[in-house]
């Protein structure tokens, strides 16, 4: 166990709830640290239900192509915690992470604080100590009361498509959830708005009007679409004919457009837009695995990995599979008990031949494999169970040689798979 692992384990014990949305504890610890969030490079703050990570990755690729040094904060991590904090383009080094965590632990003094809050404070501390040109800050959950929402004057805010998710924390309706996401809007700070349902767009517009925040709205002020083998982006400055995004899936056309709109708002042009779509890297988003023990176990089968976990994520995966070369597709799926499991699976029933359910190792909120299989059967998917992902892949390799296997349903499962696969 590394030094940071030991500290992180201690920090997990500081609050009885994993999620407890509030800004009071953040303001307290940040004040004790000297308010490092006021000394970080200009912030691009990103909220939304789906596409936040992919959009952030594309914005980062565009900025870095212009020679800019970029900090980035995202969650959750997949294989190791260090993935959450990127300093001037590089994952935070172990000594720097351990030092920041120890300083935050000391400043907190044992007071109740959630794991996400205190680790977000550590990210701000690390960002404040390394020079950079921009800070990309991804919301953890919601927006209004998220631990990242302590930035008073971001350079830009971004809201990706909003859908129903985390209703126990954000509200039962799309309007309520959109209102929480719109909580990142700041007075007179422009916001890039991805495609939204009318009720979500209205909630964002109402919040923006009160704050005099200029909106750049998809399909009104800018648009992105696929034409043949090109991505077409258009706004008031003109039209760009670009390569298709390297991140697979029709939904990445929207994410690319959102990222390009953000880059344009920051004053960048075609060169940075092109880099955004062809140089972005974002694991576990329809990622094809090409080496490692799980790939060997798959034999002649293609092996893919995706971390989508809500109904909109299921629709995105289904659309991606539909656009790929025709091949029998079999799912290996593990999900958390906090998710709309049937809602996620329903779009997949038309594109997959079977689903093998697994529990997510080490996750207290994992849905038992039997329950996941029952949800799959309820939407018309032929379903069974396996002890783990490796066993599921091995069985499918024997029973369905040459098929496509997609491991899906949770970023936590995706992280387990990436660690297991080296």
Automatic annotation (TrEMBL):
Q: What is its EC number?
A: 6.3.2.12, 6.3.2.17
Protein origin, superkingdom: Bacteria
Q: Name one GO biological process term.
A: tetrahydrofolate biosynthetic process
Q: Name one Pfam family in it.
A: Mur_ligase_C
Any one cellular component term from GO for this entry? cytoplasm
What EC class does the entry list? ligase
**Record's catalysed reaction(s):** (6R)-5,10-methylenetetrahydrofolyl-(gamma-L-Glu)(n) + L-glutamate + ATP = (6R)-5,10-methylenetetrahydrofolyl-(gamma-L-Glu)(n+1) + ADP + phosphate + H(+); 7,8-dihydropteroate + L-glutamate + ATP = 7,8-dihydrofolate + ADP + phosphate + H(+); (6S)-5,6,7,8-tetrahydrofolyl-(gamma-L-Glu)(n) + L-glutamate + ATP = (6S)-5,6,7,8-tetrahydrofolyl-(gamma-L-Glu)(n+1) + ADP + phosphate + H(+); 10-formyltetrahydrofolyl-(gamma-L-Glu)(n) + L-glutamate + ATP = 10-formyltetrahydrofolyl-(gamma-L-Glu)(n+1) + ADP + phosphate + H(+)
The protein depicted here goes by the name: Dihydrofolate synthase/folylpolyglutamate synthase
Kindly list the cofactors needed. Mg(2+)
Q: List the Gene Ontology MF annotations in alphabetical order.
A: ATP binding; dihydrofolate synthase activity; metal ion binding; tetrahydrofolylpolyglutamate synthase activity
Do you know which NCBIfam families this protein is assigned to?
Answer: folC
**What sequence ranges are listed for the domain Mur ligase central?**
46-262
Chain's role: Functions in two distinct reactions of the de novo folate biosynthetic pathway. Catalyzes the addition of a glutamate residue to dihydropteroate (7,8-dihydropteroate or H2Pte) to form dihydrofolate (7,8-dihydrofolate monoglutamate or H2Pte-Glu). Also catalyzes successive additions of L-glutamate to tetrahydrofolate or 10-formyltetrahydrofolate or 5,10-methylenetetrahydrofolate, leading to folylpolyglutamate derivatives.
Keywords for the protein's UniProt record, in alphabetical order: ATP-binding, Folate biosynthesis, Ligase, Magnesium, Metal-binding, Nucleotide-binding
Ranked from the top, the taxonomy reads:
Bacteria, Pseudomonadati, Pseudomonadota, Alphaproteobacteria, Rhodobacterales
> Keyword Transcription regulation: yes or no?
no
Keyword Ligase (UniProt) = yes
Record organism: Paracoccus denitrificans (strain Pd 1222)
| Pathway the protein contributes to | Cofactor biosynthesis; tetrahydrofolylpolyglutamate biosynthesis; Cofactor biosynthesis; tetrahydrofolate biosynthesis; 7,8-dihydrofolate from 2-amino-4-hydroxy-6-hydroxymethyl-7,8-dihydropteridine diphosphate and 4-aminobenzoate: step 2/2
Family label? Belongs to the folylpolyglutamate synthase family.
In this chain the Mur ligase C-terminal domain maps to 295-410
């Amino acid at each position: 166990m590394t030094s940071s692992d030991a500290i992180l384990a201690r920090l997990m014990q500081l609050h009885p709830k994993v999620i407890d949305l509030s800004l009071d504890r953040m303001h307290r610890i940040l004040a004790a640290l000297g308010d490092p969030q006021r000394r970080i490079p200009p912030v691009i703050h990103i909220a939304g239900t789906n596409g936040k990570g992919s959009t952030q990755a594309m914005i980062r690729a565009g900025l870095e192509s212009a020679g800019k040094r970029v900090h980035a904060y995202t969650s959750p991590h997949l294989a190791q915690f260090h993935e959450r904090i990127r300093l001037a383009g590089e994952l935070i080094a172990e000594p720097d992470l351990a030092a920041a965590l120890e300083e935050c632990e000391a400043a907190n003094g044992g007071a109740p604080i959630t794991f996400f809050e205190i680790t977000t404070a550590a990210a701000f501390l690390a960002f404040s100590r390394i020079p950079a040109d921009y800070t990309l800050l991804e919301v953890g959950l919601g927006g209004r009361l998220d631990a990242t929402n302590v930035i008073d004057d971001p350079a830009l805010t971004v809201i990706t498509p909003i859908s129903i998710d985390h209703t126990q924390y954000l509200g039962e309706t799309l309007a309520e959830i959109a209102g929480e996401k719109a909580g990142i809007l700041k007075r007179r700070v422009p916001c890039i708005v991805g495609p939204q349902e009318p009720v979500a767009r209205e909630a964002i517009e109402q919040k923006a009007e009160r704050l005099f925040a200029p909106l750049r709205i998809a399909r009104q002020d800018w648009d992105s679409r696929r034409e043949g083998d090109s991505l077409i982006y258009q706004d008031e400055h003109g039209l760009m004919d670009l390569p298709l995004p390297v991140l697979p899936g029709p939904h990445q056309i929207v994410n690319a457009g959102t990222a390009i709109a953000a880059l344009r708002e920051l004053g960048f042009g075609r060169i940075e837009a092109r880099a955004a779509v062809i140089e972005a890297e974002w694991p576990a988003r329809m990622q094809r695995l090409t080496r490692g023990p799980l790939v060997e176990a798959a034999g002649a089968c293609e092996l893919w990995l995706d971390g989508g976990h809500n109904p909109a994520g299921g629709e995105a995966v289904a659309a991606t599979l539909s656009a790929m070369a025709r091949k029998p597709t079999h799912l290996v799926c593990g999900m958390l008990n906090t998710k709309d499991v049937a809602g996620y699976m329903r779009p997949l029933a038309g594109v997959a031949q079977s689903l093998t359910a697994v529990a997510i190792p080490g996750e207290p909120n994992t849905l038992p494999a039997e329950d996941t299989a029952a949800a799959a059967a309820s939407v018309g998917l032929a379903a069974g169970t396996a002890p783990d992902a490796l066993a599921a892949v091995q069985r499918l390799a024997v029973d369905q040689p040459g098929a496509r296997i997609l491991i899906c349903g949770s970023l936590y499962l995706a992280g387990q798979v990436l660690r297991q696969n080296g």
